[in-house]
Structure formats: C-alpha cells, structure tokens
Specification:
- By secondary structure, the protein is α/β, with parallel strands linked by helices.
- The protein has two domains: 139 residues, Rossmann fold, CATH 3.40.50; 67 residues, DNA polymerase, domain 1 (Orthogonal Bundle), CATH 1.10.150.
- The chain is built from nine helices and six strands, in the order E-H-H-H-H-H-E-H-E-H-E-H-E-E-H.
- Strands 3-2-1-4-5-6 form a six-stranded parallel sheet, with helices on both faces.
- The radius of gyration is 17 Å and the shape is globular.
- The model has no long low-confidence stretch (mean pLDDT 96).
- The site of magnesium ion has 9 residues, from loops.
Amino acid sequence: MKKEIAFIFDLDGVIVDTAKYHFLAWRNLATSLGFEFTEEHNELLKGVSRVRSLEILLNIGKVTISEEKKQELLVLKNTEYLGYVNKMTAEEILPGINNLLNNLDSNNIKYALGSASKNAPLILEKVGLLNRFAAIVDGNDVSKAKPDPEVFLIGAQKLNMKPENCIVVEDAIAGVEAANAANMVSIGIGDAQLLSEATYVLKDTSEFTTEFFMKIIN
Ligand code: B16
Ligand code: MG
C-alpha cells in the first residue's frame, strides 16, 4: 500500500506574493520615521513575525522608541497592509499553485497552511482558497516563530499525520529549517544556494509541474 502523505504550505512567497504589500507598508513607516527602507532590507523580514519585523526595521533606522509607540506603529503598519490585502483576488495566486492543489485534491492528499502571518485566513479568503485547506495554522496559533518547528508540527497534528509523512513547501530559509527540525520533507521555493538545506529546491512555483508532483508523491 502506498504511504499516506500530506502537504503543508507556507503562505507568503508560496501561495501568493504578499511580500510586496508588506514592503510598501514597512517602507512608508520607515519614511515617517525619517529613514530609507529598501527592497533589500525587506528580504530580512520574509517569514519573520510582525513584532520581530518592526524590531529589525527600527534597528535598520537606528531608532529607539517606547513599547507603547511600538504597539501604535504595528497597528498603523497592519492597517495600511490590510488596505492592500483587501484588494487581492484569485489572480494573485502564484503560477503552478492552482494546478498543484488540483493534483492534491484528485489524489486525495490532505493539505494545511503553516504561516507566520496573523492575516493568513483573510488572505486565503480574498484569493478564494480558504475552504480548500483541511487545516490552517497561522501567526495566532504559535508561540515560537520559524525556524522553530512548532507551526508545522501543529499542522501535522491538525491533519492527523506523522511529521515524517508531511511535505512542507517554503520560500524562507527559516521555514526550511523549521521543516527539517520537524523531520519533514522540505521543498524550497527560490535560490538553490540560499535554500540548500531543503530536500528539493524549485526556482519558483511555476516549476511545480504535474510531472514533479508525481515524482514527489511516488
Ligand atoms: P502578518 P509567511 C509571513 O508570512 C511574511 O513572510 C512576513 O513577512 C510577515 O512579517 C509575517 O508573515 C507576519 O505577517 O503581519 O500578516 O501577521 O511567509 O510565514 O506566510
Ligand atoms: Mg514565506
């Protein structure tokens, strides 16, 4: 009998590219604080929690503020970010993902979301994917950020699967590390050198062809 497997997907950088919206909102925040925030800086925030992202940003600008002000800025940034998210549609689903989800459905393979984003359910709803996932684990459910394996271990638990039978799709180094720490197979999306710890690496999601899918599941 074929081994039962499940998939766990990261959201930003795998299902949709919300990094560009995070960037716009963080950059405006930096501008209001009087320093420049570049796309290169934004790379440092991928897969990182909202609170940690603000700390990194303030560090870049060498700005020190009170705890109260930090909370205020987090709300401000998220409000602007949600303005972009609310305009998202199914057209923003990254190439290859619809095909992959269809392949999973037709092979009766369950899949969950494992994201650091507290906005994950809203984003999935906006792009019409919310009801496709058997389980959702997001930034509201975890106490330890990636590379801690918590988010994926909760995902496996919710799917009622053993970690070693789960395949994680991730674009961030910390996410690949989290998948490995959870004893899961990892598929990195992005630069092969950066994601060298992943079991497989694809340049982008369009390389997730039916042929590659069949290779992975067999
Ligand atoms: P939020 P992922 C992550 O999503 C993003 O990559 C990261 O840039 C963001 O700071 C984090 O979610 C928290 O997002 O502010 O919406 O809670 O890649 O883990 O799906
Ligand atoms: Mg990501």
